[in-house]
Amino acid sequence: MILFVIPGSALGIVLVNTGLGSSIWTISFENITNILHIYYFEGTMYLTGLSFIRISMLLTYLRIFPGAVFRQMAFISIGLNVVCAVVFFLLSTFQCVPVSYSWHRWDGEHEGHCYNINLQIRVAAIVNILLDVAAVVLPLPQLWKMKLNTPKTLLVFLMFAIGLLVPIVSVIRLQTLLQFGNAMNVTYVYARVGYWSSAEQHLAVLCACMPAIRNLIRRFWKRSTTVTHASGSTDSSGNIANSNDTMMEAGSWPREERHSIPLKDIHNDEDRRYDRKASHTASPGSFWVHALETASPA
């Protein structure tokens, strides 16, 4: 998908620098040939790139929705896009015989012939519009059955609203082609067609990448939140530790001012003897200690 879009975007910059958008009568002959040559390659990549973008969207649908009927329709749509990509690529590549006549025919000095290029471009534009609408509308019944909550429903609605812009831009591009299809001032007219073609491609890429962009934003948001929370906890615990150290330093005595009192063992077992004499009188059911006599030390 990206392999067809990025080169087209880069070539668009080259076209503008070469003179695309200016009147053909103000551009050198060499630059006119170069513009038509680059535009030829852009046309082949444009048609093929749109088909691969739709295929990538349909493959994403297959990962999300498990319904058997839906999967059959998705595979049919993928097959149609593959067929259209191959057919339009071949028609665009061999639109003139010889191929170089596509960018040399303007000067009237080269021999060759071309097929009805305007008819081919218009048919390709109409088919692309139909396939764009099918790719956007196909998952809507499945989404309706999921019964998502309000935030997710709004997010999905936003995604498909952007998706609907793609066929709208395709219609505007088709209108431009119908208006300027037979114009002689091709370097000026092709600029307007190129604007809408580029907008259509980049909007389609954005729609195809929106699920991945959403997941990327969620992961980045979670990581940034986790790092912020962890740094706040570390700072808080560090402050607590510092305050504890301060309290310990404030409440402790200097090492050299501490005093200790040595303790000595007192052995008085040999100095004192305790004689306990007890006399008791037994009475029925009781035991009484009448006296406890302690003798003085000997």
UniProtKB/TrEMBL annotation:
UniProt keywords (A-Z) are: Membrane, Transmembrane, Transmembrane helix
List compositional bias (Basic and acidic residues) regions by residue number: 254-278
Q: Which residues form a coiled coil?
A: none
User: Which residues are in the Rhodopsin domain?
Assistant: 6-219
Membrane spanning segments where? 45-62, 74-101, 121-141, 153-173
**Which residue ranges does the record annotate as region Disordered?**
228-280
Q: Which family does it belong to?
A: Belongs to the SAT4 family.
Q: What is this protein called?
A: Rhodopsin domain-containing protein
